[in-house]
Amino acid sequence: MNTPLIQAPAREMLMLLEGLAAFSAPGPGVTRLLYTPEWLQAQQFLQERMAGMGLAVRTDRVGNVYGRLGGSQPDSKVILTGSHIDTVLNGGKYDGAYGIAAAMTALNYLQQTFGQPLRTLEVVSFSEEEGSRFPLTFWGSGHVTGLYDGSEAETAADSEGVTIKSAMEACGLSSEHPLGDLRDLGDHKAVAAGQTAARTDIGAFVELHIEQGIVLEQSALQIGVVQAIAGQRRFTVKVGGTANHAGTTPMLHRRDALAGAAEMLLELERSAVEAGDPLVATSGRLEVYPGTSNVIPGDVQFTLDIRHSEAKRLESFCSGVMAGFEDIAARRGLTLEVVRTLSTAPAPMDQGLSRTLEQICLSQGRTFRTMISGAGHDAQLFASGCRTAMIFVPSRAGISHSPDEYSSLEELAAGLDVLTAMLYELAYKES
Amino acid sequence: MNTPLIQAPAREMLMLLEGLAAFSAPGPGVTRLLYTPEWLQAQQFLQERMAGMGLAVRTDRVGNVYGRLGGSQPDSKVILTGSHIDTVLNGGKYDGAYGIAAAMTALNYLQQTFGQPLRTLEVVSFSEEEGSRFPLTFWGSGHVTGLYDGSEAETAADSEGVTIKSAMEACGLSSEHPLGDLRDLGDHKAVAAGQTAARTDIGAFVELHIEQGIVLEQSALQIGVVQAIAGQRRFTVKVGGTANHAGTTPMLHRRDALAGAAEMLLELERSAVEAGDPLVATSGRLEVYPGTSNVIPGDVQFTLDIRHSEAKRLESFCSGVMAGFEDIAARRGLTLEVVRTLSTAPAPMDQGLSRTLEQICLSQGRTFRTMISGAGHDAQLFASGCRTAMIFVPSRAGISHSPDEYSSLEELAAGLDVLTAMLYELAYKES
User: Fold this and answer.
1) Which among A244, A252, A305 has CB closest to B398?
2) Does one domain contain both A53 and A171?
């Protein structure tokens, strides 16, 4: 590999991160929900900074912000990099924001160090990924990739009944002005004003993100090269028994829905451990009815969240678990009702790009490993349409979606350098 | 056994039961909470009916209603029989009320058929047993037996903040007039006006009650002769793990509080089945925190309700379960906190009286069995102070504390005849 030494300015990136963290609703950590005043101010802040770096800035109809560094080969497809600007309620300052701040810093460094690229580079700050305000995740990247067509804005509403459409209008986003200051751009027709279909001009997408898990920390490694983003299945399971008097019903005459659910949850755990990494299976919510200390539970409802990077194994694990649940219910005389509430396919990352990332780590002397992302990311929406790569840095104690989310400057800087070298490979090297 | 044929008028008892059921707050089933207008009307209705039967009627300072049939041996102790007039929210018409209606019918029949007894007979309608309005169970029988001294009335309040004291005053019960129409009585000094200490004049207590369980129905028997009322231990168990991302935390790096709780509940069930009847163990309430489908549970809290008729076995079972929970928590790296919230001792019924009941069943041609009461009853408060007996009749499908509570007239009549014969044995036979 013939890549120049990359030493991108990590402190510049950190100041962008700290600057973004200031745009938050009151309360612990960072709360920056879609189309709120703090969200709008954050996106405006980024537009100013991108413009200050000499990037051509625009927004699209859902408020994604782009900063563009035009390439000398105008017919080449765009190299896109970035992440999402929204947070969960009382989240941290790294989830999403790190990928944007690092991408901006990388583009600025590359332009200043190496001048105009061959292929156009764009940094993107996606408007939304978390689904924390409206019941739609990936609202930003979903518009770029065609998951959404905009019609959802009329009906989807937040917990106070505000539709996405009216929240967008409050931020100055409307169908009459679907793209912000597109006039600044003018060098690429694929992103023409009024664009409503998915972008077809993207040749590669690279996302840098904190791991949000403990794998890198526990193995004391700097970089995770993501091989795939796990597919997810979510279910709601209802177990029905007979509510009865806790004192007068002998043990052998019970149809205890909670005892049955407990056996199912233990079986789930046993099967998941047996299946091995990267399979994970979780029941995060469980409710008991009637929920009185001296009444045998008549009904229990619990959720399942099951993830794997390979579609076939995810499918067969889920089938096996459900068969096991049916056996337990039948043996105990309980009713069982399973509803699938979510199903996303695993998203494999591009193998060539992953190998390039590994070579960059070797040439920079970074410790690294390949891994699966159990969490969902914007990158998973790009994987089927263009070459896609994803880079992880460690999260302290694996904590995320919390004010305690933290990665050190050294860890963040390592990821920045790997991303910058990757963008150099993609945009500056003759293919 | 030399007992005359007893054929007490079951329809008279049924009309009393139906009459009582009419005193209810609106809604399904019967709702007659302590010191409400419907409760007061029900107790006044009983006083009228008792007076109509020629019984000497009085109330005490907590609103227990007594109907007295004085014996010819004034120095003999009182034979007391009855149950409680209050219900749970949306309860049935048999729980408690049956024991009162049958006792009144029995006394009336005995007086009409056999005249004055040797020993004084009293029927009691206890003001409260369920603990449905105020956080004190056995408020009625607890005053007669010394569990309460009345000071609780100042502080204990219902969910709307009304203290027992002010609720009592609204029913005309006050410290100035602690005993209602005691003047009607005048033949027994132990229940003198102003009585605040427990009664010491009671020689035996007999309670007739629906089983509230499925044992008699499943064995197709008419009468249950209660050998003991089970002791109860209740606990709140808190299991602490680490809340973490459901997608990014490998199975072997989890401290899942819900998986740990599930293992504990299965172990509880296994141990209880192994211990065998009459041990019962139930977890009726369980809560998961944070309770989000994609977050590994960090904390779980659940209740335990464990009952047995023998104090030593109850104690050793609870110790064994707790030791098992500690092992599970230690192996999983979870914290465990157990708080005992209730402990009542088992109450053995009088063996001589139980044998008399069995002989009555044999002489009346009733099918019967001895059994343990898993539910608590007023009788358990008398067991340590006087000879106490308890009679069960079947409950359809074991349903109780529900508008669906039901026992047939035939079943109720069998219990009435056994109770009547028992009272004849205790009050009319030369000892």
Assistant:
1) A244
2) yes
